[in-house]
Amino acid sequence: MKPSHFSRKRSDNRRPTGVRGFRREKKEQGNVNLPPLSSYADAFEAERCKQHLSYRLGARMIANARTPTGWLKMPWALRREVREFRRQRGRK
Predict the structure, then answer these.
(1) Above pLDDT 90, what percent of the chain?
(2) Which among 2, 35, 70, 91 could bridge 86 via Cys, Cβ 3.0 to 4.6 Å?
(3) Contacts 24+ apart (CB under 8 A), 78-84
(4) What's the Cα-to-Cα distance from 91 to each of 37, 54, 56, 67, rounded to whole Å?
């Protein structure tokens, strides 16, 4: 038997919760084009975050994880990114 909170009806003013509700809401909205990142008031903060080592390593991992050869090359790609990061920061 399902708990009572599964069978409750929602009022229209409440947002759906959970994965199914999120997917339903996303489907209803369609493709929403957001303004470019540079138009936001805190765009400089986003650009600053993109220069963090963790962001750069994550971006490199995502790029390399798409192909089987990318998985093989990943350790060297990550090491290259760390070297580039240190070179830009003026460290060894």
Answers:
(1) 41
(2) 91
(3) 81/53, 81/56, 81/57, 82/53, 82/57
(4) 30, 17, 17, 32
Residue 3, classified by CB atoms within 10 Å of its CB into exposed (0-12), middle (13-18) or buried (19+), is exposed
pLDDT digits (tens, 9 = 90+) for 71-86: 999 999 999 999 999 9
Q: Which residue has the tokens 């990943």?
A: 74
Residue 82 has which token pair? 């760390």
- Three-state SS string over 22-71 comes to HHHHHHHHCCCCCCCHHHCCCHHHHHHHCCCHHHHHHHHHHHHCCCHHHH
* Alpha-carbon gap, residue 57 to 82, rounded angstroms: 8
- The answer to whether the CB of 30 falls within 8 A of the CB of 24 is no
Q: How far apart are CA 22 and CA 38, in angstroms?
A: 27
